[in-house]
Specification:
The chain has helices at residues 10-22, 56-65, 91-98, 158-163, 175-188, 221-226, 228-242; strands at 32-36, 48-52, 67-71, 84-89, 100-114, 128-134, 138-144, 153-156, 193-195, 198-203, 206-211, 214-220. By secondary structure, the chain is an alpha+beta fold.
Length: 244
């Protein structure tokens, strides 16, 4: 269920919308609708946007009016390929208990428009934004933990999002890599872990991946701790090469 605090900005919004409309330039070109529709055939690899929120009122308004907006300059991928959005709540603005990725939704329409046209959160600015109208926000059963560095915007595959439990896992290439990340993390903590038919364990300051006792991949513990996504990609490549 959507929290009760969703209506906190409603009164202010209603009073300011008229002011925004009054400043609307005459004879301006219509907004460009980038995408409109439901499910699509053959969805691309990066079909999901993870975007940050600035504060609690923004979350309240976005959940109440079923949309998310972001500066167009922060959307380097094909806007029309984005079929899902999720919102990232940072520790800085939401505190440790509410931080992470909790809400997501399927995109109904993506529109390129100037910032002042987003009447629900008024601001007099000509900067171009992308507005994603969504079909209704859903709450992830197990929120994604804000492990590591925060983000402003990032892109992932919805299938990866479904199984990810920590923020860095969102930037991996596949659900298999998410499982490999989990195995390496368990091994880094001193536990013996498995990935498919392979064993993953820590030895000294290294993480080893073996197949029946045969070493097929190795990385340093320090590398995994500092750059987990890059390290998982590196180990994954070693495993694939060993299996050829």
């Amino acid at each position: 269920m959507i929290p009760v605090f969703l209506g906190i900005a409603a009164a202010v919004i209603a009073a300011v919308v008229l002011s925004v409309k009054a400043h609307k330039p005459k004879n301006e070109p219509p907004d460009e609708i980038i995408f409109s529709g439901g499910d699509d055939e053959g969805e691309p690899c990066h079909d999901m946007l993870i975007g940050a929120l600035s504060n609690m009122p923004q979350l309240s308004v976005c959940l109440e009016y079923n949309f998310y907006h972001i500066p167009a300059k922060l959307v380097p991928v094909d806007i029309g390929s984005i079929r899902y959005v999720a919102v990232y709540q940072s520790r800085r603005f939401f505190g440790s208990e509410l931080a992470g990725v909790r809400y997501f939704a399927q995109v109904e329409r993506a529109t390129l428009l100037p910032r002042y046209k987003i009447a629900e959160l008024p601001r007099q600015s000509e900067e171009m934004y992308v507005r994603f109208d969504v079909k209704g926000w859903q709450k992830k059963i197990k929120p994604i933990s804000p492990t590591g560095k925060g983000i402003i915007a990032g892109y992932t595959e919805f299938a990866v999002f479904e199984v990810a439990e920590e923020l860095p896992q969102l930037w991996l290439k596949s659900t298999e890599d998410v499982s490999l990340y989990a195995a390496l993390k368990s091994a880094a903590a001193g536990d013996r872990a498995g990935f498919k038919t392979l064993d993953v364990r820590k030895k000294g300051r290294s993480l080893l991946v073996t197949d029946g006792g045969k070493l097929i991949a190795i990385c340093s513990l320090k590398a995994f701790e500092r750059a987990p996504v890059r390290t998982v990609n590196y180990v994954s490549k070693q495993i694939k090469e060993a299996k050829r």
